[in-house]
Amino acid sequence: xxxxxKTLKVEQIASPLRRNNDQRATLIGLGLNKIGRTRDLPDNSxxxxxxxxxxxxxxxxxxxx
Length: 65
Known about the structure:
This protein has a single domain (7-64), classed as CATH 3.30.1390.20. The relative contact order is 0.36. The protein has helices at residues 21-30, 45-53, and strands at 7-12, 38-42, 58-64. The protein is α+β, with helices and mostly antiparallel strands and 65 residues long.
């Protein structure tokens, strides 16, 4: 049986205005582009690195199942 991959629920809480272009690109890579949007993302090192880069713009709501 294949195990279900763990996911993180991420919500955008701030605007990327007046930020570096790479931070906006990171938000788009995460699938976030408007305040209040949430996404269920796989819990892996690449996703965690992206979240860390824009940690001041997003909030990890919790583990999605």
